[in-house]
Amino acid sequence: MTWHVGTVVDTKTETPTGRSIVFDVPGWTGNLAGQHVDVRLSAPDGYQAVRSYSIASADSSQRVQLAVDKLPDGEVSPYLVDDLQVGDQVEFRGPLGGWFVWRPTDVGPVQLIAGGSGAVPLVAMARAHAAATSTEEFRMLYSVREPADAFFSSELQSLTNEHFALDWIYTRKAPEGAARPAGRITADDLARLAAPAASNPLVFVCGPTGFVETVATQLVELGHDPQRVKTERFGGK
Amino acid sequence: MAIISRGFAGRSREHNPELPPGQYLTEDFPVLSAGPTPELDTADWTFTVQTENGPTKWDWDELHALGTEEVHTDIHCVTRWSKLGTTWRGVPLDAIFEKVETEREFVMQYSYGGYTTNIPLEDLLDGKAWIVSEFEGEPLDPEHGGPARLLVPHLYFWKSAKWIRGLIMNDNDEPGFWEQNGYHMYGEPWAEQRYW
Question: Is B2 in Cβ contact with A91 (below 8 Å)?
Answer without folding.
Answer: yes
